[in-house]
UniProtKB/TrEMBL annotation:
Protein name: Phosphate--AMP phosphotransferase
Organism, scientific name: Proteiniclasticum aestuarii
High-level lineage: Bacteria, Bacillati, Bacillota, Clostridia, Eubacteriales
Domain of life of the native organism: Bacteria
Gene3D superfamilies the UniProt entry points to: P-loop containing nucleotide triphosphate hydrolases
Entry-linked InterPro entries: P-loop_NTPase, PPK2-related
Pfam families: PPK2
Segments forming domain Polyphosphate kinase-2-related: 6-226, 258-477
Length: 484
């Protein structure tokens, strides 16, 4: 009887595995990322079920990520850092063996110590926003909660202990937290029953088939949806410009200058203060994120250069944001920025940033209108996650007049040491000044938050802009030090 059951199971499993492999290839062509989550108590059968999926899927386009007790490096970065980094590309599948839910519960119950998140509710909110961001971006998200009878669970554990080769599995991450874990997961499922699939692990045959059938069914439906989308009209990408926007930039268009000698004196003093602040950030384990946006030739690079001039180079990193690479473009646009989030006590500086989605990508039509509209909330969520972790987020937009930009463009063309700074693209962007002006004002209006406010700086005088930026950084950091 057992032999016949096994043969029937193998036959059905092979059929489902073949179908799953086919669906993965089809969704790869449609550029649909897939995330499959397995949650469940210790020794519930998650490993076997995950492995059967891994065997069925093409390993070239499949990743497996197991949540573990966080390393020192992971604890020094935001809660979602390790997960966003491991989200799949648009042609891949990622299986999460335990996930952000397990880590959240471990932090809430004190199994994992992390003093940065005193309020547990904030992490559940981050999880909800993270999953929404993934799904809105086109990810197929399948979440399994594996349940098991206590006697069968004990049997699994004893079998692992009896075998020296599997004994390590009996000491699975968070294994002594089962009762608290179950209680918390039941509350989570009760709040969001629709997004979870419960699977009762009764025996290896039945449960493997059930999981394969569910995944195949989900992906079949997704393939049908993608075929319909392919036949439909392409989404609009005209940038939804209408000339109506809050003109925030208007009040920063005068000429605010500063005396040359006064500039030198203040710059030296402020740079020394910046060095002291860097040491305090390190001592207090506070990450600092500085974002610089602005018109072409507004002086972002020169501003950044003055900020870091006296800093310890081991404690900061400058990220210059250009067009995404082939790997980056296959991921959610925030993926490459999650990869550069600073650890506690360090500084990350962005010369252009994630705001490209709502500026250049909007103006140039590189992103659909829906993608751009959604990005405002996604960016706010991203920055809120950074702030929840304790990071100081300061965002500068350096504004110059159209006339000032022209003078700087022409000066660069005439200076053989700076001519490399001016490109045909700069001139093309200038022709779209009005569109960029609308996009910038919308960005400032929709993404200046309490957690991450925008500071618009009049950049018609480079000296004034440099001093103003540095004073803003210092004032903001001093206030944060007092708060903490």
């Amino acid at each position: 009887m057992e032999e016949n059951l096994k043969k029937k199971y193998e036959k059905e499993k092979d059929k489902l595995s073949t179908r799953l492999g086919y669906l993965q290839r089809v969704l790869k062509d449609y550029k649909v990322p897939v995330i499959i989550v397995f949650e469940g108590v210790h020794a519930a059968g998650k490993g076997r079920l995950s492995n059967e999926l891994l065997i069925a899927l093409d390993p070239r386009y499949t990743k497996f990520y197991a949540t573990h007790s966080p390393t020192e490096s992971e604890l020094r970065r935001p809660f979602l850092w390790q997960y966003f980094k491991n989200t799949p590309s648009s042609t891949a599948v990622t299986i999460f063996y335990r996930s952000w839910y397990s880590l959240y519960i471990a932090m809430k119950n004190g199994t994992v110590k992390n003093e940065r998140y005193n309020g547990n509710k904030v992490l559940l909110e981050e999880i909800t926003r993270f999953e929404k961001t993934m799904v809105d971006n086109g990810t197929e998200l399948i979440k399994f909660y594996i349940e098991i009878d206590k006697d069968l669970q004990k049997e699994h554990i004893m079998r692992m202990y009896d075998n020296p080769r599997t004994m390590w599995k009996a000491q699975e991450y968070d294994r002594d937290n089962d009762e608290e874990y179950k209680k918390e997961m039941e509350e989570i499922l009760e709040e969001d029953e629709k997004s979870w699939i419960r699977v009762e692990y009764e025996n290896r045959y039945k449960s493997v088939i059930e999981v394969l059938e569910i995944v195949v069914d989900k992906l079949e439906k997704r393939v049908k949806e993608e075929k319909k989308k392919a036949e439909a009209d392409k989404p609009d990408n005209d940038g939804f410009f209408n000339g109506k926007f809050p003109n925030i930039l208007k009040k920063y268009e005068g000429k605010e200058d500063i005396d040359k000698e006064e500039y030198k004196d203040r710059l030296i003093r402020l740079q020394k203060e910046m060095r002291d602040v860097q040491y305090t950030l390190y001592e207090k384990k506070i990450p600092l994120i500085l974002v610089y946006e602005g018109w072409d030739a507004a002086g972002k690079g020169g501003n950044i250069k003055r900020v870091v001039q006296q800093l310890d180079p081991t404690g900061y990193e400058i990220n210059t944001t250009a067009a995404p690479s082939d790997v980056e473009i296959k991921h959610h646009y925030l993926w490459r920025f999650w990869n550069t989030v600073p650890k506690t006590g360090h500084i990350s500086i962005y010369d252009r940033s994630w705001y490209g989605r709502v500026m250049v990508e909007r103006v140039e039509g590189f992103a659909s209108n829906e993608d751009v509209k959604r990005a405002y909330d996604e960016i706010n969520d991203f920055e809120k996650s950074l702030a929840n972790f304790g990071a100081i987020v300061i965002k500068f937009f350096i504004h110059i007049s159209k006339e000032e930009q022209l003078e700087r463009f022409e000066a660069r063309q005439e200076d053989e040491d700076k001519v490399w700074k001016i490109t045909e693209e700069d001139w093309r962007n200038r022709e779209k000044w009005d569109l960029y002006q609308e996009a910038i004002n919308d960005m400032l209006d929709k993404t200046s938050t309490e957690n991450a406010p925008w500071y618009v700086i009049n950049g018609n005088s480079k000296k004034f802009a440099r001093i103003k930026a540095m004073e803003t950084i210092l004032d903001t950091c001093y206030k944060a030090f007092l708060d903490k």
